[in-house]
């Protein structure tokens, strides 16, 4: 599965970086390989043994089966969501940037135990959002703060 997804990333770079759409034949080939990986994963991963004492809730399935289940939900077609980056140029291949953007907020909550007031949390979010946006646009954070204080954000 890892190889399939990285092959999709290669296609994204090859076509989307040039402003082109990925050909449907390439998308279909990646989709078929994705589906085959799921089938192969289920074929080689045994179901966990059932416990003699029935417990409440769903039985534990292990990391591999949990990942396979998440990638192929029987109620929803997760394949479309997992491979959406192939069909849309503006959708990133991974969500790492989004996770990096919220990490400072979670660290602040963990270190200090949370924010004292809601306005304080709102101000923290505004400042973090501003600094994150300027960094993504290639502006040094110190320069961004100086421009904001000078009234020229």
How are the elements arranged and paired?
Blueprint lengths: L1 H15 L7 H21 L17 H10 L6 H5 L1 H4 L8 H17 L5 H19 L4 H9 L4
Strand percentage: under 5%
Task: Give the structural class.
Answer: mainly alpha
When the domains are counted, the total is 2
The parts where pLDDT drops under 50 for at least 5 residues are none
Give the SSE string.
HHHHHHHH
Report the mean per-residue pLDDT as an integer. Answer: 85
End-to-end distance, in Å? 44 Å
Which shape, going by the Cα principal axes? flat
Number of helices: 8
**Cα-atom radius of gyration:** 22 Å
The percentage helix is 55-70%
Q: What's the story with the biggest beta sheet?
A: none
Number of strands: 0
Tell me about this structure.
The protein is mainly α and 153 residues long. It has two domains: 2-87; 96-149, no CATH class. The protein has eight helices and no strands. The chain has helices spanning 2-16, 24-44, 62-71, 78-82, 84-87, 96-112, 118-136, 141-149. The longest helix is centred in the first third of the chain and has 21 residues, at 24-44.
Summarize the structure in short.
The chain is mainly α. It contains 8 helices and no strands.
Keywords:
2 domains, 8 helices, 65% helix
């Amino acid at each position: 599965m890892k190889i399939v997804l990285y092959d999709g990333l290669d296609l994204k770079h090859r076509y989307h970086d040039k402003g082109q759409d990925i050909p449907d034949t390439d998308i279909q080939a990646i989709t078929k390989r994705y589906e085959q990986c799921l089938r192969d994963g289920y074929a080689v991963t045994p179901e966990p043994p059932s416990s003699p004492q029935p417990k409440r809730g769903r039985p534990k399935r292990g990391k591999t089966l949990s990942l396979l289940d998440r990638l192929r939900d029987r109620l929803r077609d997760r394949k479309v969501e997992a491979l959406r980056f192939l069909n849309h140029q503006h959708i990133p291949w991974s969500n790492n940037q989004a996770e990096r953007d919220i990490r400072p907020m979670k660290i602040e909550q963990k270190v200090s135990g949370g924010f004292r007031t809601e306005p304080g949390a709102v101000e923290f979010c505004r400042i973090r959002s501003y600094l994150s946006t300027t960094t993504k646009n290639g502006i040094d954070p110190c320069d961004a703060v100086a421009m904001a204080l000078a009234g020229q954000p």
